[in-house]
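Morning!

As promised:
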Amino acid sequence: VWTLSQIAQHIDGIVQGDELYEIASVATLQNAQNKQLSFLSNKKYRKYLAETGAGVVIVSRDMAPDVPMHAIIVDDPYIAYAKAARLLNPEKARNAGIHPSASVVSDSTIHPTAYIGPQVVIGAGVTIAENVMIGPACVILDNVSIGEDSRLIANITLCDNVRIGKRAIIHPGVVIGADGFGIANDHGKWIHVPQIGSVQIGDDVDVGANTTIDRGAIDDTIIANGVKLDNQIQVGHNVEIGENTVIAGCVGIAGSTIIGKNCIIGGGVGIGGHLELTDSVMLTGMTMVTKSIKQAGSYSSGIPAEETHHWHKNVIRYRQMDKLAERVKQLEDLKKK
Amino acid sequence: VWTLSQIAQHIDGIVQGDELYEIASVATLQNAQNKQLSFLSNKKYRKYLAETGAGVVIVSRDMAPDVPMHAIIVDDPYIAYAKAARLLNPEKARNAGIHPSASVVSDSTIHPTAYIGPQVVIGAGVTIAENVMIGPACVILDNVSIGEDSRLIANITLCDNVRIGKRAIIHPGVVIGADGFGIANDHGKWIHVPQIGSVQIGDDVDVGANTTIDRGAIDDTIIANGVKLDNQIQVGHNVEIGENTVIAGCVGIAGSTIIGKNCIIGGGVGIGGHLELTDSVMLTGMTMVTKSIKQAGSYSSGIPAEETHHWHKNVIRYRQMDKLAERVKQLEDLKKK
Amino acid sequence: VWTLSQIAQHIDGIVQGDELYEIASVATLQNAQNKQLSFLSNKKYRKYLAETGAGVVIVSRDMAPDVPMHAIIVDDPYIAYAKAARLLNPEKARNAGIHPSASVVSDSTIHPTAYIGPQVVIGAGVTIAENVMIGPACVILDNVSIGEDSRLIANITLCDNVRIGKRAIIHPGVVIGADGFGIANDHGKWIHVPQIGSVQIGDDVDVGANTTIDRGAIDDTIIANGVKLDNQIQVGHNVEIGENTVIAGCVGIAGSTIIGKNCIIGGGVGIGGHLELTDSVMLTGMTMVTKSIKQAGSYSSGIPAEETHHWHKNVIRYRQMDKLAERVKQLEDLKKK
């Protein structure tokens, strides 16, 4: 339990109301009860302010008069909420040490403050830094290194030589450092090209459930500091992703493509191989990128849903579009005569 | 081995032929031999009836005269086949109990009829009901509850506080309850927003291999009774999926979207965040949904394949479509003069 | 360390330079140093030849005069590089035997030369051939068979009765033999149709990380010899993929579709169910296939990215395309009068 003033201090806000009011947990405006903390960030939800049962609401200055109970006034309510929610829901404390069911090769260097969970496998030459958490059933192959305060939740595979920075959060089912899709056609039969590079992941990177990041063919695949990856993303070999770029779920990035800093990539996007996307590119959901993008800005493709019987008609017309354009050209030419 | 009359009784059908004929297994019409049971559901395959080697065929009444050997006459041959196939291929019996290689925190409540396989990890405060099967290498984190008769095949991760109903079938590689993609931009740097909600899964839900269902940001992600999910689906935080909705593989559903009951969603569909889809919506494969759908019915988007050299031409024309439409408008205006 | 002449002999090439020159590793032309071997395959990178620090470059005959240091002259530099890279980076040797933390049912047949890693689970009736490597935390369910020299890297699930050929390479997170998406609607409620078939995988098949291949409904799902699958591919039940076909990441193939030999399928492609694709079909990235393809050749669909504000305009026009086509028709009809 935290008092209003303790929370306000933590999130750099100003109390409106009773400084000693006590809060036990967070909730949405719609569902909050009187010992709960909520927030208003998107003004679309302003209507819920009047009826909320929340004991405290985090708001921006202009919304403060509308809060029925106590308020904490901040510059950015969503950021402030995120910090308050972490305060009220701290990471679970875990005892340091290696679970007896884990299988650890003896030449690995595991900091005594690290936690190694049940059924974990740790290969040879692995380095695990201070306060790292390796959750249950993770497999850490040879010569991997993991920086301090990183957390691997469970059931994650890191292949040989992968390097993870500090404060990473890696979710279950993630595979980092599997072979890239390197194949060569030897007189009609495909042979596997050895994938000798590895993967370097910077600090403060999140990797969502079941995302895969392939090792480089010769040089490394590189994920820079502050990159946030959602679930089920496929990152091909030798891709480079710049600082603070965020990528939503189900995106596929083919090999050797370089993505700049501060990009925002929507769900289901596909990006071809050997391309370059400059900094601050935004791609809306399901966009297909087949050429490099040299100008910052927002790009899109893909056709939104319509009723299936209309879609049928439009799809047929689409197939005839080149001819349609020529028919228009002919009409124009006639006109000119 | 079952007799024809035993099978007919089980599937509520009428025997045409020898009631004591014995059947050992099922097969397709094309490949069946004389001790095998087959079925005709799709009339497109009617031609195979004449030549089938099957000892028994499940058919509707109007097809019965064409069956060369024995038949079982039913209302819905596919449903009847499904039930007969289960009769002839029962779930493997498993001894109850906890495999000695499993790692189970002692305060968990595991029903004595449940099976806990090798290398399984079970955290603190977990509740596992009657006849549950937890297959090899599953990771069940803290405070999870799993309802009776549910089966987790292998290598599945259920994160803290996830609740699974009765009779679930969950396939390998599934991750339920990983953090949603909650990030907030704090002066140019993305920070992780704690994901405090969980996931509630109803009764009779199937979840296909490598599908991921994220935990809610504050409230829970909800999958209602009878939902069937195929492989490699991504369900974002706070999504709600209504009863008896079925979703094919590779679908992505962004956060906070609400999908109604009895929907049928094809493979590779992408659905944006914060949308509402009403009941009985059908989406054909690879459709992109960017707006709420308020009317039941079938919706589509996406362009089917054509030869690449035509595609090139049409894509160029597509890019000029806005201009083309204006050129047509000009021609029409000239006409009017 | 290998000498130039040893490497040349291994890759069937001709030495240009000092036969006794020693090479320790491979590198890209841009990053290589003097004890390193590089290659020039794509003539686009010819400019790097002059400045490379590589001690040896593998090239075709016509490029040999431009190599500043030593060269190995071959017919196909990429294939030759692949073979040299394997020579210089051999698979890690592993001791044969079963790790003490593995859980193996005693009636399985495991060749004494096979390696079974830590935390592995092996079910009943499994057959594992010579020199097979089963990496950490793999789950091999009942009656699976795995052919000689196959390597399962880690954290892979093979379900009951799956058969894997020789020399397979299977990457982490792969699930082979989970139930296909077989459901039938029984008076408004979906029931699970037992999936009785299995999966047969030929020789020399690669399967990328987190790819899923479902077991057949009645007959088997079949992956022929020499097929190469990238990451996060979904292969539905009863799909058949012909010899030497290669499939890039994030492809979804719906049930009962048959794909020919020597096809090349780009990333993010979606292929509907019950279709047939003939041999030597190429599909570019993100193509949607809704009909069978009977002619070899290259096929495409999908719209490449454009600036979002243009996209908005074109999408609106696309929706009106059927009407636009009719307006053009009317103008043409007027003309004819």
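The radius of gyration of chain B is 26 Å.

Hope this helps with the figure draft.
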